């Protein structure tokens, strides 16, 4: 997946646990774990807004686009 | 309210499905035991309250094994095996429903198996009636089998949509 989720990095910087973030954001830890491990297919703006509000960060700090990952994926698919 | 939270109504619905599935399993199990005994009663002349008759076609209704031609008997055995396979698939499907698993890959595979069993059963009936030169075949089972396979395909597509939604945070 060319979109990389750096949620674990931001959590470590803020010294926050995943379960605490999930509780503050209002979603289940399992759902947040799906995002953290990069398995998510889509993220709602409302969820992203809540995460940024709790962590006091920008969406760009959590989400990163890597073109190299996209090319690798295309090669694997072909 | 965040839509990622599970509604308490879903648990109540799942419980109802599980209970209904267990009841269906019991009824199916009873039906299978009864059906197997009927088949064995016909094959080995076991005691049975009424005379068992196997209608292959309108003019060919057999009440004992000795009356059946060899080819018809072989096809009849295959048909019985197929019906048993369909019952096993249905039982496994209800067991999955009883565990609260409604839309997994296995569910869809079992529904497809049911559809194929119905179609192959229809083909066997066609073959038996052709062998007896006494055709009175209805197209309904073939149509039903094809529709079941179509429904299984739709369920598979729905499962993929649901998986994508579940992976939407």
Question: What would you note in describing this structure?
Answer:
- The complex is a heterodimer of chains A (78) and B (169).
- Chain A has 78 residues and is mainly α.
- In chain A, 64% of the residues lie in helices and 8% in strands.
- Chain A has helices spanning 7-14, 18-25, 29-36, 45-55, 59-62, 67-77, and strands at residues 3-5, 63-65.
- In chain A, helix 2 crosses helix 3 (29-36).
- Chain B has one domain (8-166).
- Chain B is built from four helices and two strands; from the N terminus they run H-E-E-H-H-H.
- In chain B, helix 1 (8-44) packs antiparallel against helix 2 and helix 3 (105-132) packs antiparallel against helix 4.
- In chain B, 12% of the residues are buried.
- Mean pLDDT of chain B is 88; it is low at 1-6.
Q: Short description, anyone?
A:
The complex is a heterodimer of chains A (78) and B (169). Chain A is mostly helical. Helices cover 64% and strands 8% of the residues of chain A.
């Amino acid at each position: 997946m060319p979109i990389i989720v750096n949620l674990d990095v931001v959590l470590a910087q803020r010294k926050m646990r995943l379960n605490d973030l999930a509780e503050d954001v209002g979603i289940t830890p399992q759902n947040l774990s799906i995002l953290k491990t990069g398995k998510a297919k889509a993220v709602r703006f409302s969820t992203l807004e809540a995460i940024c509000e709790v962590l006091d960060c920008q969406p760009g700090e959590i989400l990163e686009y890597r073109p190299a990952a996209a090319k690798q994926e295309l090669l694997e698919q072909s | 309210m965040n839509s990622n939270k599970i509604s308490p109504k879903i648990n109540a619905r799942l419980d109802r499905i599980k209970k209904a599935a267990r009841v269906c399993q019991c009824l199916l199990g009873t039906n299978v035991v009864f059906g197997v005994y009927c088949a064995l009663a016909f094959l080995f002349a076991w005691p049975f309250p009424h005379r068992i008759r196997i209608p292959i076609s309108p003019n060919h209704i057999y009440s004992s094994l000795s009356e059946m031609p060899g080819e018809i008997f072989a096809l009849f055995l295959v048909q019985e095996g197929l019906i048993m396979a369909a019952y096993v698939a249905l039982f496994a499907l209800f067991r999955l429903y009883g565990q609260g698993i409604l839309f997994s890959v296995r569910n869809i595979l079992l529904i497809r198996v049911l559809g194929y069993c119905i179609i192959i059963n229809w083909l066997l009936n066609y073959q038996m009636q052709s062998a007896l030169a006494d055709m009175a075949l209805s197209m309904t089972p073939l149509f039903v089998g094809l529709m079941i396979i179509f429904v299984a395909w739709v369920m598979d597509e729905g499962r993929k949509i649901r998986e994508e939604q579940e992976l939407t945070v």
